[in-house]
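Worked example 3. Consider a protein that binds EPZ.
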Amino acid sequence: MEKIRIQGGHDFRLKGDVRISGSKNAALPALAAALLTGEPVTLRNIPLVKDVFSMLKLMRELGLESALQGTDLTLKVPRILSEEASYNLVKLMRASFLVLGPLLARFGKAIVAQPGGCAIGLRPVDLHIAGLQRLGANITLEHGYIKAEADRLQGADIRFEKKTVGGTEHLVMAATLARGETVLRNCAQEPEISNLCELLVKMGAKIEGIGEETIRVVGVDQLGGADHEIIPDRIETGTFLVAGALTRGDIRLTGTEPAHVPTTIDKLRYSGATIDVDGTDIRVQGSDEIRPQDVTTSPYPGFPTDMQAQFMALMTQAAGMSIITETIFDRRFQHVNELLRLGAVIEVIGDKAVVHGRTPLSGAEVTATDLRASASLILAGLIASGETIVNDVEHIDRGYERIEEKLRGLGARIERIRD
Ligand code: EPZ
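Given these inputs, the predicted complex is written out as structure tokens:
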């Protein structure tokens, strides 16, 4: 069992340059999009994280041939070997559910395990299913598997009841090979969705309204190959910006897309950090005094729920009280109990966490419950006096590429240890 050990301290400051990897949440749907064509699709700037390899493993069972060179990945699905995505693989990573629409759209049939529970909350896929049914799919749930069939999907006018990143990505992909026009309303507008749409257009899809609340897709008979760049990871960007502010350090993030982190930058500036943007570089200089900030998570371009836990770690060091409201997921405060173990003072009342700062933290053994919670605990460990041990680090590897190496490059005393 792997753990991460951190020697933290109040006098410690991160310094230097760190390169941001490609976006996990842009790479995963882009991988699924390769199922829509028999031609080669090359994705560049792929993050070498566990979730990407889980998706590749699942897709190989479906018929994928792939080659990875550095962070360039070439994918090809000349034919289907199996139309079934097994529970053993889908349960590893929910986003693998996104193979359903592309398989159905191209091959007329797909059987995909219904994703199970998740640490951060109830995460139904009802809006995905309802949307595919509106496109004419015949869908049944049998023995925990979603079985979908359609000779050819038909364009439709679909309004999402609520904004869903995965639902928008799923329906856009399925609609590219449907007969006629599909209009998707109340779409989510995350940059990862736009990155996917740009890939699909390169493959020959007809899509209007990229990045907007209403997306129009006119179906085509078939799609071709493409060569496409995955955007930088805006959540990894936000995580390292918080690391710079929290340690009152001075770091420069390279290979970022500053336009994708608007609210994170705003909130860090309000809290007292100095943030300078220079092309694809962002420099963060922390201040000795951290000001409390109230934060409410919301769909893009609002404050990302995937930054909530990391920002909470920062607010434990703010001079005063901050209220963090989580509106997207109903169980995304699991990191609170672990931060309390490090000496933080936080009360949870419904969807709000009231963080009382500034409370010096002291190192302890803590356990990660999900990807972003583990990032929050590592950040807190950097400024906690003495030694912090983070258990269950497999969560962090799902979405961060070599995080401890990157932090060590900035001067952190952090290492991976085995039991
Ligand atoms: C994506 O998940 C991200 N994952 C999540 O990042 C991120 O937290 C989330 O979007 C919100 O930004 C990937 O891109 C792989 P949603 P997704 O559908 O698509 C409800 C991380 O840390 N909903 O936008 O699953 C849902 O329960 C991960 O990298 C339905 O009710 O999120 C939630 O409350 C964690 N029915 C809300 O909508 C549905 O059919 C938003 O979920 C679909 C969603």
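Take a moment to read the result before moving on. The CA atoms of residues 235 and 307 lie 7 Å apart. The mean pLDDT is 97.
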